[in-house]
Structure formats: C-alpha cells, structure tokens
Amino acid sequence: MADRPELPDNDVQWRSAGDRIQTLLDACAANGTAAYDRAQQLVREVVGLYGAGLQRIMELADAPGVAERLATDDLVASLLLVHGLHPHDVHRRVCDALDRVRPYLGSHGGDVELLEVTHDGTVRLAFKGSCKSCPSSAVTLELAVEDAVRAAAPEVTSIEVRSQPDTNVIRPESLLSRVHSNGHGSSSWHPVPELADLGPGEVAGFLVAGTALLVCRVGAQTLVYRDHCPVCDDSLAGATLHAAMLQCPRCHTDFDVVRAGAGPDGARLEPVPLLARDGVPSVALHATGVPA
C-alpha cells in the first residue's frame, strides 16, 4: 500500500483559493499599511471584474439547460454564490445537497429529511433509519450532511437536527454540537481521485494523510472504512468481497460493508465519510489522521 502521488492541477485546488489569497494579503501587510491597502484594492477590483463577467455569462446563458449546468457545477456554483448570482434559492440548493449525500447515508442504513429552512437561515433536518448503534456512524453521517449543506448554501447560519420517534433512529439530540465540542470540527477533507477508478466488486487499500483505508465497490456504491479488523485487531489488507460481505483474510470474519460494516456479536468496521467535492471523491479525516 503506497501513499498517493501529488494531485495534478485541477478544480480541487480552487477550494482553498480563499485561504491562499488571505495568506498573500497578510504577507503584504508586512510591507506596511499602504502596501496592504493596495493589495486589498487589487483583490476587490479583480473580484468585481469577474463578478461582472459572471453576471453577463448568466444573462447570455439562455440556451436550454446551460444555466442549469453552470449552477450545478461545483466550481462555477461557488463563484456564483460569492457574487449573489446563483439561480437557485437556498431551499433548492439544500435539497440538492441532501440528494447528493443520500447514497452515503443509505450505505449506513439512514436517510435525511429537510423539515424547513427558516427566514434567518436555520436549516432543520430529521434523520431517519437505523444507524444500528454503530459507534461512529451517527457522527460521520451528520458530519457528511453538514459539509454538503454548508458547501451548497454558505449563507446557512445553523443546522438543527431532530429525530424521528422510532427507537432505532439516530439519537434525538443533535450530534453536530458534540462533533465540534469533541474536536471533530477539526476534520478535513482529502481528495482521492483514484476511488473513481474502482470497479464493481473490487477492494483496494489507500494511505491517505497517514491513515490506512480500505475501499470497497458494491454495485454503484463506493464505501470507505478504516483498515482495521475489530475482531483480530489486524489489517484487512488482502480482504475479499463477496456481494456486500467483506471477509477478513486473517480471522475470516465477515462484515456487511453496505450496512455500516456490521459483523458478528456487535463487531463493526469504522466507516469514513466519502463525498464528491468539486467532482472528486474525497474522504474526511481528523486533523490527527484518524477517520472523522
């Protein structure tokens, strides 16, 4: 299992463009107030120029489907949001974000329903379905949902989670507050474009940010787990996949990768959030390198 090569230049790099711009501005401040003010003015002029250009593009994009394609492209959509030009309202964008994350929720036996988007920007959600008492599943589900919603609708001020009355659903209290208070808020997303090349029935190992991961492809679903067998406390390297069942090559224990990595006697694999960000498969890991 080798570490991944450096990513080529592509749309992914623009996700952190704002941070790089701020770093450059801070560097300009070292040369005095006048230099910093000129740098800020330059950024404002460039942003204004591109904003005007985007507005003209949206006005001219009257061919059937063109505006929709622009609005659903992650990179273009982020620029449209910055300039207040996105054609979809916040409710539509939140709905679309939830639709994109539902395959991941479904892989853990869960689902999410949008209850409302309030006038002050609060999104209220209800999680449904069983997380089967998976020790990390509920947290990873909410982390994935929060990330998807905030990327699609940065103007959202808060996200509240309610439970359904079933006894097996994700617990009533919102885990998002605990995610941040317990340090999960320091999680970061790492692009792994190689995941898109995985074929149905294949299992592959990846080393991402120092963390060994096992990736399974079941039909159209790609599922990511930490490379660790909870039964024999060893690596899953060399594991085989039969339908949705992953067998540890050492202790021969079977785990259902579609149902949150469920194994015998309550044993479970540790799931890792997987989302397409800027069109590239990406996994969420803590800043310390363990799965989010």
Automatic annotation (TrEMBL):
Pfam families, A to Z: NifU
Protein's GO biological process: iron-sulfur cluster assembly
Gene3D superfamilies per the UniProt record, alphabetical: Fe-S cluster assembly (FSCA), Rieske [2Fe-2S] iron-sulphur domain
Organism: Mycobacterium angelicum
Organism placement in taxonomy: Bacteria, Bacillati, Actinomycetota, Actinomycetes, Mycobacteriales
Domain of life the protein comes from: Bacteria
Entries under PANTHER family matching the protein: FE_S BIOGENESIS PROTEIN NFUA, IRON-SULFUR CLUSTER SCAFFOLD PROTEIN NFU-RELATED
Purpose: May be involved in the formation or repair of [Fe-S] clusters present in iron-sulfur proteins.
The protein, known as: Rieske domain-containing protein
UniProt xrefs under InterPro entries: FSCA_dom_sf, NIF_FeS_clus_asmbl_NifU_C, Rieske_2Fe-2S, Rieske_2Fe-2S_sf
UniProt KW Coiled coil keyword: no
Rieske domain sequence ranges: 189-283
Listed GO MF terms: 2 iron, 2 sulfur cluster binding; iron ion binding; monooxygenase activity; oxidoreductase activity, acting on paired donors, with incorporation or reduction of molecular oxygen
PROSITE patterns: RIESKE
UniProt entry keywords in alphabetical sequence: 2Fe-2S, Iron, Iron-sulfur, Metal-binding
